[in-house]
Write a structure and sequence with these properties.
It is built from five helices and 28 strands. It is mainly β. The longest helix has 12 residues.
Length: 427
């Protein structure tokens, strides 16, 4: 943008208006940023800095979500009006972190989020392994790695507007809710003592009245796809992994109501164990921990939209078919052998720490492109008799939460008097 070639734009660093740190004791915290209403306009490229925690010693961030795992919900507000938001941020961010090319994950994203995504063949052992070491924290903020988050990746509204004029949005603020207890694992060592680092917001301010006036005259409307959330439960199998569960089909058909009377585009399902201890062994997260999306055995999925199945015949049945639909809808994903497959034999021969990472990135996605009156998800898995103890993860029979995200069409309408409406678009 040519604004940056002269003095039309200045960068401001905004301290929180209020900050309640999340700790291992409180389990929650929050931070609120308020933007100075005396500025004429803000550019949409807002950045959240110093995202992360420090701890009581040297520990590592969650390998999938990185420092972003501290954030549970985040909202862009104008006073009490919600402009854009992301709920259950950690879960969807885990998918977004792999929704890249492998090279981008290695070179860029791992540095910004402090995750450990990016894979290559390790020549010394001739196995696939992680490119990046996991970055971590210490007892000091100064020596703890921290994340950098582009808020355009969080609030899609920001990608649809040229600027945010304070003549329209008079009380801009950003609200963030933290989560830091065991059920929302931040560090690999789940018993580590943590304190949330005080974040900082970087914003670019338009300072030329003539430019602002011209842009204001062009700001009539905007449309974007808001990523909204719902969820359903996959209950524990009838026999809790006992012998009578062997090859028994389990089916759930939940009705998803969060997207009714909305036009949705893409849809995504991420699964997690209801019991967070299923992702822990010896006080440490196994693989990607709570933020993995575990693959079950012989899954079958279909989306029934307004009485009609989206996928033909029996729906999505195979591992590669499931991955193909995901990539067709959502684009490139960073993967590795067995990332979306259950119980691959000999995975240790091709993947470093194979048993810990096999079947951990099993996301289900597709394209809907319709106005929703009725949405039912048909999900099936096949049970297996458990051969390990009750504390071991058993994705074929354990109770799970399935998080459902869908892109909902929303729009901004700016009226001649500079008031505005935020509403769901019909198409």
């Amino acid at each position: 943008m040519s604004f940056y070639s002269d003095s039309n734009v200045g960068t401001q660093y905004v301290d929180p208006k209020s900050f309640i740190p999340g700790t291992h004791l409180t389990g929650s915290g929050r931070v609120n940023f308020e933007l100075d209403g005396t500025a004429m306009a803000y550019l949409p490229n807002m950045r959240l800095l110093n995202v992360g925690v420090n701890s009581n010693g040297a520990h590592l961030y969650n390998r999938l979500v990185g420092a972003y795992a501290i954030i549970r919900n985040i909202r862009l507000m104008d006073g009490k009006t919600e402009l854009s938001a992301c709920n259950e941020f950690q879960i969807i961010q885990g998918f977004k972190n792999i929704n890249r090319t492998n090279s981008h994950s290695e070179v860029v994203d791992s540095k910004l989020s402090q995750n450990s995504i990016g894979w290559e063949i390790q020549g010394n052992v001739r196995k696939v392994g992680r490119v990046e070491i996991v970055r971590g924290v210490t007892a000091l903020e100064a020596t703890s790695y921290q994340g950098w988050l582009d808020l355009r990746d969080v609030f899609p509204m920001l990608n649809s507007v040229s600027h945010l004029p304070t003549a329209v949005f008079k009380n801009l603020n950003i609200q963030i809710e933290y989560a830091s207890l065991l059920d929302r694992q931040i560090l690999v060592a789940v018993a580590a003592h943590i304190n949330t680092i005080r974040p900082l917001l970087a914003v670019d301010v338009l300072q030329n009245p003539a430019i602002v006036a011209k842009l204001n005259g062009q700001l009539k409307s905007a449309r974007w796809l808001e990523l909204e959330h719902d969820q359903f439960n996959i209950p524990v199998s009838t026999n809790d992994g006992g012998a009578n569960d062997q090859l028994v089909l389990q089916s759930v058909n939940p009705k998803i109501n969060a997207f009714n009377n909305k036009h949705i585009e893409r849809i995504l399902i991420a699964k997690e164990f209801q019991n967070p201890l299923k992702a822990v062994s010896g006080g440490n997260q196994v693989g990607f921990g709570r933020y993995a999306s575990p693959c079950a055995f012989r899954q079958r999925v279909n989306f029934r939209v307004n009485g009609r199945n989206i996928f033909p015949r029996n729906g999505i049945t195979g591992n590669n078919e499931r991955l193909a639909y995901l990539i067709d809808a959502w684009g490139d994903c960073t993967a590795y052998p067995s990332s979306n497959q259950f119980g691959v034999d000999g995975i240790d021969d091709v993947l470093i720490d194979g048993p810990d990472y096999g079947g951990q990135l099993d996301y289900i996605g597709g394209y809907i492109g319709e106005y929703i009156n009725d949405l039912v998800i048909n999900y099936e898995r096949t049970g297996l008799q458990a051969t390990q103890g009750a504390d071991a993860p058993r994705p074929a029979t354990d109770a799970m939460v399935a998080h459902v995200y869908a892109e909902c069409a929303k729009q901004l309408i700016v009226n001649p008097d500079l008031s505005y409406n935020i509403e769901y678009a019909q198409q």
